[in-house]
Design a protein that fits this description.
It is a single chain. The chain is of the alpha+beta class. It folds into two domains: 3-147, Sandwich (Jelly Rolls); 157-229, Arc Repressor Mutant, subunit A. It contains nine helices and eleven strands. The chain has a four-stranded antiparallel beta sheet with strand order 1-8-3-6. α7 crosses α8.
């Protein structure tokens, strides 16, 4: 495997804690395959046969869900080192739970599910670490999904926007930060329309809570933002 990709995998949670030689030996055991996609290509479609846990090697991709009305919502944005499909690997359903679309040109490695759920024929040292890492990932995923349900239960548009901005404010540790997505993507992520998003953000600016220019946001009244998030 390309050394650049191996470096990305070493920083992925699935392969965390593995030495270079240990990772190389494990990759020889995993029977993986690498696929490449162009921007806006459909990587995987919800309901299609599951082909293994994916890890982004380069570029970015979006995990998308659609409701019965055909409205789409971005569940998460994937960057190099991020993985997807980990829940499906242990579900026994054998189908992709969500659609994945290439946000940019990207390369993805797929690890067959049986390599994660079954025993290693070569009993390589890295396989035990792989399983332990996978259990940790699933636990964290369950907690994140619980938080996501709470997040989407917020009824007001301002409340959703405030929670979204407050989370990024806390993650960045400063009042000025860049949003990781454009307005259309942010609207999809929050499950609101683009006009509603723009209108409410303008109102929040008029109220002195924040200021923004394109993807740059500056929180001007953190107390008011926290109040709106409640």
């Amino acid at each position: 495997m390309d050394q650049r990709y191996q470096k990305v995998l070493s920083e992925c949670m699935l392969f965390r804690g593995m030495a270079s030689q240990e990772l190389s030996a494990l990759l020889d055991c995993l029977d993986f395959r690498v696929r490449r996609f162009s921007r806006n290509d459909i990587v995987n479609i919800a309901g299609d046969p599951f082909e293994g846990v994916g890890v982004i090697l380069s570029g970015q991709a979006d995990v998308i869900k659609e409701n019965n009305a055909g409205e789409r919502m971005i569940m998460t944005m994937l960057k190099p080192g991020d993985l997807f499909g980990e829940m499906a690997a242990f579900s026994g359903v054998g189908k992709w739970p969500a659609t994945v679309v290439a946000h940019t040109d990207c390369s993805i490695i797929y690890v067959p599910a049986d390599k994660l759920t079954g025993q290693c024929e070569k009993t390589c040292a890295g396989h035990r670490r792989l399983i332990i890492n996978m259990l940790g990932i699933l636990s964290k995923k369950a907690l994140t999904l619980s938080k996501k349900l709470e997040y989407l239960s917020i009824r007001s548009v301002r409340g959703r926007i405030a929670n979204f901005l407050l989370e990024h404010y806390k993650n960045n540790g400063q009042a000025i930060f860049m949003l990781p997505m454009n307005r259309n993507e942010m609207a999809d992520f929050l499950n609101i329309t683009r006009p509603s998003l723009s209108r409410e953000m303008s109102r929040m600016r008029d109220d002195g809570i924040l200021d923004f220019h394109r993807s740059s946001v500056r929180i001007t009244d953190i107390a008011a933002l926290k109040e709106a998030a409640e």
